[in-house]
Amino acid sequence: MKALEAEQAVRYWLGNMVVGEGLCPFAAGPLARGQVRIAVCGASDADGIYRYALAELDHLLQADPVELETTLVAVPQGLEDFAGYLEMLAFLEDALQQLGLQGTVQIASFHPAYVFEGSAADDVSNYTNRSPCALFHLLREDSLSRALASFPDPDNIPRRNQQRMRELGLQRIRQLLGLSGAPSSRD
């Protein structure tokens, strides 16, 4: 997947799944205000991906939160394997700790083959965290805390999202994602 294709796929996913299906009740506002950066990594090796993600972290921290609230680091090549993705996620989370940024920034994880611990690979609820390519969502903790404080029962969001995926079913999810072979009506 090329950079432009990756960015377009991520935007489509954001619109149809994340905002369209309400998976993140806080995403629509920043997206509409242009405060979401989609940064597509051109590297495909671990060192290059790591350096790119850290550069995007620095960019986010240097930016005015009014202008840039959050960044999605899209990695279309090099992290296709979910285990390799999780390893990179662990390296990036370690970097946050080493830089003293825990409590300032957190990383939400999304991958095309995402599987929740304890779930079967074919469990449709995994689609709450499945994206068109490997993604590291860099979130400002203070923005997230404010959003969560004004939302009723935020602890129920993951459970609600998994239930929504089960209600939609695999065929409808594939249709929403624009994947081939999807039926034209809800299953």
Helices and strands in order, then pairings?
Layout: H1 3-19, H2 28-32, E1 36-40, H3 46-62, E2 70-75, H4 82-98, E3 105-110, E4 134-140, H5 141-149, H6 157-176
Parallel strand pairs: 1-2
Antiparallel strand pairs: 2-4, 3-4
Helix pairs in contact: 3-4
Question: What does this entry show, briefly?
Answer:
With 187 residues, the chain is α+β, with helices and mostly antiparallel strands.
Q: If you had to describe this structure to a student in words, what would you say it looks like?
A:
With 187 residues, the protein is of the alpha+beta class. It is 45% helix and 13% strand. Strands 1-2-4-3 form a four-stranded mixed beta sheet, with helices on both faces. The relative contact order is 0.15. The chain is globular, with a radius of gyration of 16 Å. It is built from six helices and four strands, in the order ααβαβαββαα. α3 crosses α4. It has one domain.
| Main beta-sheet annotation | 4 strands, mixed
Separation of the first and last Cα atoms: 29 Å
If helices are DSSP runs of H or I spanning 4 or more residues, what is the number of helices?
6
Strand order of the largest sheet: 1-2-4-3
Which percent range describes the beta-strand content? 5-15%
Number of domains: 1
pLDDT below 50 for ≥5 consecutive residues: which ranges?
181-187
Overall geometric form: globular
The H-and-E topology, N to C, reads as HHEHEHEEHH
Structural class: alpha+beta
Helicity, as a percent range = 40-55%
**Mean pLDDT metric:** 91
Gyration radius over CA:
16 Å
Number of strands: 4
